[in-house]
Amino acid sequence: MEEKCVNQKVETETKEILKKYPKERSRLIAILNDIQEKYGYIPKHAQMVISEELSIPMAEIYGVITFYSRFTLAPKGKYNISICLGTACYVKGSQKLLDRAKERLKIEPGQVTPDGKFSIDDVRCVGACGLAPVFMVNDEVYGNATVKQFDEVIDQYMNK
Ligand code: FES
Predict the structure, then answer these.
(1) pLDDT for residue 1
(2) How far is CA 30 from CA 11, 21, 85, in A?
(3) Minimal CA–CA distance to 154: which of 111, 106, 110?
(4) Distance in angstroms (rounded) separating the CA atoms of residues 50 and 31
């Protein structure tokens, strides 16, 4: 689909979502939640429509999206691998997990593999410090992780 068509679709759909809410900036988070749920990320064009309709500067919307970890600016893979680099996980070697993920999937955090299957996120504390080091595949948490275990889990998802 051409970019113009995609933008038009996003515009129409974002306006549909906006209709559910009063035109108040206090509704921004709820609106962004709906957009994130619909697309799996917050498309730039949706941000532009929100900015225009609610008279909120783009920079402010960008600030909110980047502040909350549940919002993302780019699509994620079918299997999103989050590696915790929070203090507890970091001191127990989670950087090695991240290095391994980058090496195996040949992408950087924030990127998606060309087949759309995997993406990597480096995150700060997922609230499971007692299990450090921790990584997640979508909502599934893997604790006390080793590079070997990480490899085995990735193998399983590669074969799905
Ligand atoms: S630092 Fe990794 S779960 Fe808290």
Answers:
(1) 54
(2) 17, 9, 28
(3) 106
(4) 9
121 CA to middle of ligand 1, Å? 14
Beta bridge partners of 136: 82, 141
Calculate how far, in angstroms, residue 132's C-alpha sits from the geometric centre of ligand 1.
6
Distance of CA 123 to the CA centre of its chain: 10
Residue range 44-91, pLDDT digits in tens:
999 999 999 999 999 999 999 988 878 888 888 999 999 999 999 999
Question: Closest Cα to residue 116, out of 154, 153, 80?
Answer: 80
Q: pTM for this one?
A: 0.71
Instruction: Determine which helix (DSSP H) or strand (DSSP E) holds 13, and give its type and residue range.
Output: helix 3-19
